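ZP: hey, is the farnesyl diphosphate complex queued? I don't see it on the tracker
AM: it wasn't, my bad. submitting now with these inputs:
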Amino acid sequence: MFNKIRLWKNKNNSSTLRDKIEKIKKLPVPEHVAIIMDGNGRWAKKRALPRIAGHHEGMKVVRKTTKLANELGLKAITLYAFSTENWKRPKNEVDYIMKLPDEFLGTFLPELIEENVQVKMMGYKSQLPVHTLSAIEKAIEETKNNDGLVLNFALNYGSRAEILDAVKQVVNDCNSGKLLEDQLDEKVFSSYLMTTEFTDPDLLIRTSGEIRLSNFMLWQLAYSELWFTDVLWPDFNEEHLLEAVEAFQKRQRRFGGV
Ligand code: FPP
């Protein structure tokens, strides 16, 4: 069962974690957290393992992160699992990453359903292998009536391509008279993006010490709080997520005001 007790029972410091969770839940939590899960390759290299071992370990962290995000009452997490640029990686690595959704959802979908999690995906579907897409589509279908945490996989996603496609669609709609130029504002433009059903992320987390956005949600992250950690994704644990959310709670968001 995907419940609170099981979530913490292996931890020696479970009471400290539980206290932290309760403390954090007393203050507003970010609604939408976006995560760049980086450092799988370096994690594997440090252990003289193949890079794919890091991705497999990273997949397990997706499960832990989802559980805790749900427990904290977040509305959505968007995880950068594969970018439109990641096709440049060696074929065996790409093939392996493309199998991870099958394995993850094949194993954990019943838990996600039980926990009321909704699975979603954003990215260019047509280039994905059939097995990857069908695992995701099955999960989307089977969780579509859930109304808890949204677990949104960014898979074959690239922000510049997304923005360009939105611009092309806007031009089309203006040319056909469906949209008037004067009607186009930030809210309307946002509705042309892949994230139309989401609020913009309140918090972006990137692991592994890299301080860049790597073509991830460039429009949507305009006012997000950014939190970078040196921790490699496979080592990212509940403590780290709580640390990021606590840091968010201490920040004062001004959205350009004073
Ligand atoms: C970046 O680390 C990581 C990726 C491109 C893949 C991320 C995928 C997962 C964490 C698993 C996703 C799970 C599911 C269920 C889809 P890197 O390989 O660039 O690491 P490096 O910078 O250390 O080389």
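AM: back. The domain at 28-158+201-250 is CATH 3.40.1180.10 (Undecaprenyl pyrophosphate synthetase).
ZP: great, adding it to the tracker
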